[in-house]
Amino acid sequence: MEIIVLLKQVPDTETVIKIGEDGKSIATSSIKWVINPYDEYAVEAALRLKDSQGANVTILSLGPQRMVESIRAALAMGADKGVLVDDPAAEGSDALGKARVLAAALKQIPHDLIFCGHRAVDDDENQVGIMVAELLDIPHLGLAVTIEMADGLIKISRPIEGAKVQLESPMPALITLGGAHAIWQPRYASLPGIMKAKKKPLEVKKLADLELSPEQVGAAAAKIMVVSLKMPVPRQSGLMISGDTAAKAKELVRLLHEEANVI
Amino acid sequence: MTGVCIIAEFRNGAFRQVSFEIASEGRRLADALGEPLTAIVLGDGVTAEAATLGQYGVKKVYLIDQPELKDYLAEIHVPVLAEILRSVQPKVVLSAASANGKDLSARLAARLGAGLAQDCTELLIENGALKAKRPVYAGKTYAWCAWTNGSYPQMASCRPNVMACSLIDASKSASVETPAITLPAVVKSRIVKVEASETKVDLAEAQVIVSGGRGMKDPKNFALLEELAQLLGGAVGASRPAVDAGWRPHADQVGQTGKVVTPTLYIACGISGAIQHLAGMGSSKFIVAINKDPEAPIFSKADYGVVEDLFQFIPAFIKEVKKLKAACG
Asked: Does the interface predicted TM-score (ipTM) exceed 0.90?
């Protein structure tokens, strides 16, 4: 079985975000880049299937050279090989453009299952993985919090508002991961894993290798773009309520009822 | 290419609240364009309800009412939506940024070759085109997005609980058209089952969230927050440490990796306020922080702060809320 994990790199979630000089992207100096947490769950889910069923796990990424570190980190966790599409011509792509690059790369890599996070916690676009499934014309099972395989079918459960849904699909299929760290608890790389990862194959491709013409991707093909970033309006400094316990409780209820009108 | 079209979300015999929110937002955008507002409604047993979207200013509803559309399955819903949208040809398409709404929006955008902004919190029309504001980095900052010239439809999904709901005229009904569309014959994936969840109020849709963190000390202590949440008609959330400790289900996690929520009232109990948690709840309308550490970063986001042991304070607070409820009848 061939499992491909789509992996993106994002600023660590403890990063304080500042707007860059162009006003439409973030300042990237002194950022610690990590694997998008939901993609890290995807790596873990793929490795669990590899452990239980046997599989080759390939990491596929689109992005600059700094991605190599994250791909190696996933290889150290236990993935088998990496493919990085690094081409300046892909810069400025919207979600659909990025999905086109990934789908084109996937057409050259045998795949039974494709895993990725349901969103990346930087742009929060919530769409690239799903679009890849559409472009490859395969089912997408989204927001998975459990993944099982039986009789050649992949089965997931996903929480939606007020309900839990179980979906099932034959392969090939694309699964986007939901849930939280507490569910997936991605494994740490072992020291031998880190040593081995250095020797695992990592192929770097250009758009031309994917038979993708530049006009299908990049800024020129984008249908939507970010025109500016704005920091949230800072909150007015709050009121600290004083007094003894009973007085504080009474005052908080009064404020919420009379001033805020929320209870 | 004209008008605004919303994709309403209908489940278990009723429209989800977010459908009225996107209808209301759609009305505002359609008015700004001076063009009509239409809606697409797919579901099972939805015929009797469909025309009520007229109360929110929808002129016309494209309705398909079939048992196969009872629960959302991308492989059935997306081709049907795409076919209707190709014939309606709206400039703007609004959908719900719910679990299913985000799923169908992305797949639909890829199918139509359209630009999509997910989880929008503000929309406006500028020079006849849509502009959308949406949180990025879970709300640490916001992106304003624009569509390139002549790129239609301009698709946006709207975060639940954010867009104002405006009932225009309770006596109005929309005209209903039933397009002749054949559902896809071959579908690979299938819905095995749908189970209603035990909690009554979903975190993403809750008006009030009472959240607990490391300071709760023990999973049993969350009963206190459950009681308060129930009293306020809200839901219980949790910080990542509380979920990582196994005290609360993962679905309750609020933060950059977890749910990003925008309730009217967020009460943070024993949560210090890690930056990734603050991002996930920072755009709540009112924030109350209860923490015994006066230096806790959560206080920087709070409208009202109480420095006290939560095990002392919350029972007293519950008592006062009960008094208020009794007084208000």
From this structure: yes
